[in-house]
Amino acid sequence: MDLQLIDKQVNEILNGTRDLLQFNQPEHAGVCSAGPLLVGALIVCNNARESLGAGSDAASRQGESPSNWEIDEEQERQLQAWADAKGVWVEHADEWLEAQYGRIIAHGAEAKVYGRTGDIAVIKLRASIYATLGRALEAIALHNYLFPETTMRVVGFTRDGDGLFRIILTQPYISCKRLATKAEIDAMVAVKGFVDNKDGNGVNYISNRLLLEDMHPANVFVEEQSQTPICIDCIVKFVRK
């Protein structure tokens, strides 16, 4: 792994002279706002996916692509090595975060949230509920593109006590007046080009390019001062054929 080459590519992406091919130009704003660690992690995961396809066993696959579990395993391996070399791999993150940022204030399927009363930001241990680690990183960039008022910024990586790979990130604290209604969520995402995908759940939306899922009221608050609905978390994926 060439750390200097990855650093060079990160800087080129941040200054706009290089692109990550899976993102269009507007989406690159979401990539960059998540910080250099997300950019570097995306590069590492893209390289890991490519290396599997070009590996010594590729010929034996007879044209088959690597499975998602193979891609995820290789991306985790390479990303942990890169993060360790960069000094952003955190051992025993649960204890460290509680000491630095306060107790757990929320705990869901995807994230543990730490914070103290009066802080302007929270910090999250975010697990991947996506097919691969690379897809989980893409989701952070796409969230930032769609919802810049709750931009996530990656600050490190770790494994929890169960060995689950987690992304450490910060996000602005949102003062919740109440949970958003379905009508308010529909209107909010319609402005961004999404419509209900009619799967019967009422919390999943689709545009020409992206899937937006898990948009239930617990993830979309009406913010106290602006009185507008704000998405703090959701599932975002590219429409893939």
SSE diagram, text form:
Blueprint: H1 3-14, H2 25-33, H3 36-53, H4 68-86, H5 93-101, E1 104-107, E2 111-114, E3 121-127, H6 133-146, E4 153-159, E5 165-172, E6 176-179, H7 182-190, E7 195-196, E8 205-206, E9 210-213, E10 220-223, E11 229-231, E12 235-238
Antiparallel strand pairs: 1-2, 2-3, 3-5, 4-5, 6-10, 7-8, 8-9, 9-12, 10-11
Structure description:
The protein is 37% helix and 22% strand. It has 241 residues and is an alpha+beta fold. The strands form three sheets. A five-stranded antiparallel β-sheet has the order 1-2-3-5-4. Strands 7-8-9-12 form a four-stranded antiparallel β-sheet. Strands 6-10-11 form a three-stranded antiparallel β-sheet, covered by helices on one side.
